[in-house]
């Protein structure tokens, strides 16, 4: 199967006529359907129509879903598009899915592990590192992850306990913008 990027997940139903509430991971949430048909986990192609947008979700009509019961049954369903359907990332930008598998190392080169997943549970994007021992989850901010080197397949991590000193020296605040979030396949650019 071609590489797919997660662009949305059903978070519930809206009203009685089968409208889905979908958390969109595209830079502009209303663009959820702009890249052509989406696919579900099994690869089945689905046609969506975004009907409205709220602060935290887009309302979507899905062919064949005509009542609240059908819509509620889809809660948790994930929508993907083929990677080639998305626009190319600008210079110094990337999709969050590109982080999966990168080696995470400290500034001194000590390896902490590999990026296992990228998450966004609503309070900001975080990366999950898999290494020796337990997994480590860190905020994906400029202070904690100052270097993303896709060509070198690595990123530099400054664990949060050290960010205060670094911030004072450099006068920077953390942050990042995301283009199309989540991942266990989260997608986005910073």
Summarize the topology.
Layout: E1 4-14, E2 19-24, E3 38-39, E4 45-46, E5 48-53, E6 58-62, H1 68-73, E7 78-82, E8 103-105, E9 111-120, E10 125-130, E11 136-139, E12 147-149, E13 154-156, H2 163-170
Parallel strand pairs: 8-13
Antiparallel strand pairs: 1-2, 1-7, 2-6, 3-4, 5-6, 8-9, 9-10, 10-11, 12-13
Integer-rounded radius of gyration: 18 Å
Shape: elongated
Strand content: 25-35%
Q: Kindly provide the name of the CATH class of the largest domain.
A: Mainly Beta
Series of H and E elements: EEEEEEHEEEEEEEH
Q: How many DSSP-defined strands? A: 13
Number of helices: 2
Could you tell me how far the N terminus lies from the C terminus, measured between alpha carbons in angstroms?
A: 27 Å
Mean pLDDT: 82
Largest beta sheet: strand ordering: 11-10-9-8-13-12
**Overall number of domains:** 2
Low-confidence parts: 162-190
| CATH H-tier superfamily of the largest domain | RimM
CATH topology of the largest domain, by name, is: Elongation Factor Tu (Ef-tu), domain 3
The CATH architecture assignment of the largest domain turns out to be Beta Barrel
Query: How would you characterize the largest beta sheet?
Result: 6 strands, mixed
């Amino acid at each position: 199967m071609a590489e797919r990027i997660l662009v949305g997940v059903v978070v519930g139903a809206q009203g009685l006529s089968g409208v889905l509430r979908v958390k969109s991971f595209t830079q502009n949430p209303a663009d959820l359907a702009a890249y052509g048909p989406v696919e579900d986990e099994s690869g089945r192609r689905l046609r969506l129509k975004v009907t409205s947008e709220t602060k935290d979700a887009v309302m979507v009509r899905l062919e064949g879903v005509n009542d609240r019961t059908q819509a509620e049954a889809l809660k948790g369903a994930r929508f993907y598009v083929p990677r080639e359907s998305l626009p190319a990332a600008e210079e110094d930008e990337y999709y969050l899915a590109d982080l999966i598998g990168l080696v995470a190392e400290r500034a001194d080169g000590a390896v902490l592990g590999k990026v296992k997943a990228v998450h966004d549970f609503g309070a900001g994007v975080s990366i999950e590192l898999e290494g020796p021992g337990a997994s480590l989850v860190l905020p994906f901010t400029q202070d904690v992850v100052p270097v993303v080197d896709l060509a070198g397949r690595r990123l530099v991590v400054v664990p949060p306990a050290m960010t205060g000193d670094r911030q004072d020296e450099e006068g920077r605040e953390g942050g990042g913008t995301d283009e199309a979030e989540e991942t266990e396949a989260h997608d986005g650019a910073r």
